[in-house]
Design a protein that fits this description.
Blueprint (H helix, E strand, L loop, with lengths): L6 H20 L3 H10 L6 E8 L3 E8 L3 E8 L8 E6 H5 L4 H19 L3
Antiparallel strand pairs: 1-2, 2-3, 3-4
Helix pairs in contact: 1-4
């Protein structure tokens, strides 16, 4: 999907940048950051594509670098429970997405590619 700089894209870009800052710097969800580091030790950048807080667990879809989507389920009731981690190819993940979800993925990919070129 080609990005055109629309208001929607800019809003999503800001949201994704804030989620990355929270994940890497604020570490507001240490469990999620720990899961990513354990499963992807060479991780350079990551963007939260979606987060669904369920009754007993949090469900995340995270773009890792610019190569894969990770589906993570973290139990909120039992913090000792081992998180469920599944990887999904970007092509598989993008099948059947709504227009707004496609825009979110395209913006996240753009941000990740920029991060990988200039990791400052």
């Amino acid at each position: 999907m080609k990005l055109v700089g629309s208001k929607t894209e800019l809003d999503i870009r800001e949201e994704l940048i804030n989620s990355k800052k929270s994940l890497f710097k604020g570490k507001s969800n240490n469990k999620l950051f720990d899961v990513l580091q354990v499963n992807f030790p060479k991780l350079k950048t990551a963007y939260t594509i979606s987060w669904i807080p369920e009754q007993g667990e949090d469900l995340y879809k995270i773009l890792i670098d610019d190569s894969i989507i990770v589906d993570i389920e973290i139990n909120r009731v039992n913090r000792e429970a081992i998180p469920i981690v599944k990887t999904i190819s970007i092509s598989e993940y993008s099948k059947g997405l709504s227009k707004i979800s496609k825009i979110r993925l395209a913006v996240a990919m753009d941000l990740a590619q920029k991060d990988l070129k200039d990791p400052t």
